[in-house]
């Protein structure tokens, strides 16, 4: 993957988290690969999980099979971004 | 003003805005939780349209809002019939507005034209409901405390089976009623429709409705407005983030103003045509 594409995907994931979880742009800008999401953000309830996945699909033009999602996918910002990148290159 | 309208299945409330004569727009909100997330915004839009001389109506649909009908008794057929009946009580010229899956409801109404904000197809709605249920029911999912059994290998079954709505899955559910949380309290004869219901994000939704939604079509709205993060075909794209994704969306006066302006201009265009 070219660096520009990786950066675009990371920015898209940040924007989705901002829009779905109602976080400030400053807060999501400070997320790094180790920032915990699932279990650490009370905003990330079941509807928000569905919203995050669907918005990532729509904005990146990818398809996410629900069977691909497991407990680790949304564990950290890094795991979610890697997952999105893996889908985008297929 | 709170008014009421009759439809073949009963009577429901409707909010009325603006003048009693002249053009009127009738709004279909999305069902379930997204209705809560979009109502304040769209009521603000209807108020601004009223100030511009365009009447508005926001009907409660059977099993939604303040309706006395239980959510799990709601059907797509009834929603469409009730919306059409509401429209028929209003003077012409009439236009329908919808937001998200509200576009599944207004297609059968006798209106001059349809306007839609980010219409969501039945298949898309079904997929999101499925995802929400799955996230709530997954062993270490966010909503695991709500009725699911953490650690159980079967805990994802009800959500998937319920929403897929396949006959064989329904049969499996009947063999394992404990797996369907919404049924535990509703086993009395006559209180549930055949096939039962499933709780998703606080709404008990009939499996028959989920099946109907999965195949439901939005038809062809005459004007589609989307938000800029949504790349699908649109007549106009507005630079805002989607309020229906937020559990507690901010009051967005600028978005309400932009939508009201777009709708007012669109109604004027149709009236001049």
Count of spatially separate domains of chain A: 1
- Apparent shape of chain B: globular
Radius of gyration of chain B: 19 Å
- The number of helical runs of chain B is 8
Strand content of chain B: 15-25%
Order of helices and strands of chain A: HHHH
> Number of helix segments of chain A?
4
Unreliable segments of 5+ consecutive residues of chain A: none
Please, could you describe this protein's structure?
Chain A: This is Acyl carrier protein. Chain A: InterPro entries: ACP-like_sf, PP-bd_ACP. Chain A: Pfam families: PP-binding (PF00550). Chain B: Residues 133-148 have a biased composition (Low complexity). The complex is a heterodimer of chains A (90) and B (273). Chain A is mostly helical and 90 residues long. Chain A has a single domain (3-88), classed as Non-ribosomal Peptide Synthetase Peptidyl Carrier Protein, Chain A (Orthogonal Bundle), CATH 1.10.1200. Helix content of chain A is 57%, strand content 0%. Chain A has helices at 3-21, 25-29, 46-60, 77-88. In chain A, helix 1 packs antiparallel against helix 3 and helix 1 packs across helix 4 (77-88). Chain A is globular and about 30 Å long. Chain A starts with a helix and ends with a helix. The mean pLDDT of chain A is 93. With 273 residues, chain B is an alpha/beta fold. Chain B has two domains: 2-121 and 217-272, Rossmann fold, CATH 3.40.50; 124-214, no CATH class. In chain B, strands 1-2-4-3-5-6-9-10 form an eight-stranded mixed β-sheet. In chain B, strands 7-8 form a two-stranded antiparallel sheet. In chain B, a hairpin with a 2-residue loop joins strand 1 and strand 2. The radius of gyration of chain B is 19 Å and the shape is globular. The chains are: A mainly alpha (90), B alpha/beta (273). Chains A and B meet through helix 1 and helix 3 of A and helix 3 of B.
